[in-house]
Amino acid sequence: MVKFRDYYKILGLSSRDVAADEIRSSYRKLARRYHPDLNKDNPSAEARFREVQEAYDVLSDPVKRKQYDSLDSRYQAGMDFQVPSGWAGTTDGRPQAGGLGGGFSEFFDILFGGAPRVRPGAARPRAARSADKANSNGQDIETALPVTIEEVFTGTSKKVRFTVNSTCLACQGSGMIAGSPCAACEGRGATPQTKTLEIRIPQGVKDGTRLRLTGQGEVPPPGSSGRPGDMLVRIEIQSHPIFELKGSNLYVDLPVAPWEAVLGGEVDVPTLDGLVKMKLPPGTQSGVKMRLRQRGMKGEGARGDEIVTIKVVVPTEITDRERHLFRQLRDISRFRPRVKPRSTE
After folding, report:
1. Region 308-314 average pLDDT
2. What is the CATH number of the domain that holds 229?
3. Residues 187 and 283 in one domain
4. Does the predicted TM-score (pTM) go above 0.85?
């Protein structure tokens, strides 16, 4: 009997009424905590990592999540589970959220993996289980690649280094030598191997984009005729000391002196193309936003804009001469930033 899996509980979520951002945040935290590469001394980390990947694959996909949420809410983790009559889950059989590409639980396979349906309580035929194993693909793996805004602007090539289970050279992936389990891979048919690949970062790539490297994932299990899994490289655009990227637009705060704001004139503005001149109208107020057209991020479509927010700043250290001139300005100026309240008498 298949056991019910509470995907919300696996991701540490106390309620089903959570936004996608909260699901993603919890997944990233747990994936880092249990990633096998970071927990080589913890034999249970890989199994926990798979659970987290499986839960995220379902809850990050709006279609799968809706189908999963339609199950009887009385089910608790570990309870015996039977597929509801008339169940019509997705049958693409392939994780969409950057999961493992294989190796998920039987509970997942029954609901979403396109596995053959069986009568409640009936065992799957041995031939069917053997066929599943023979056709199993290797697992997809995923890694994050930090990139800068400048690298996204120009496009670049970067090297990514990762560890993946590759075909054991001792047994050639069979898991057996002379009728006994291979000592080198302990019968798994694969051993950890560190790879370094150079990948192309497309110009204007979006944060969170997954680049797929076909066949660079883990090898299929011993005896399987399936294909190797893929490597999914998730782009993570790093924060920038000057620019903020939103979609294809760049945002920047521009400090200006009080006299620049009052008198107007040309000011230098940093862009990804270098400094450009921008005309500042006389009397520009702090907080005003100005647009530099087509100075934002390049990409496949039209180039974005740069949004410049004016920040009027005052000097904190001045000379005696400057202080004298400011006092003269105070005495002769008719400008009153604060309106006097009217008398009630």
Report:
1. 96
2. 2.60.260.20
3. no
4. no
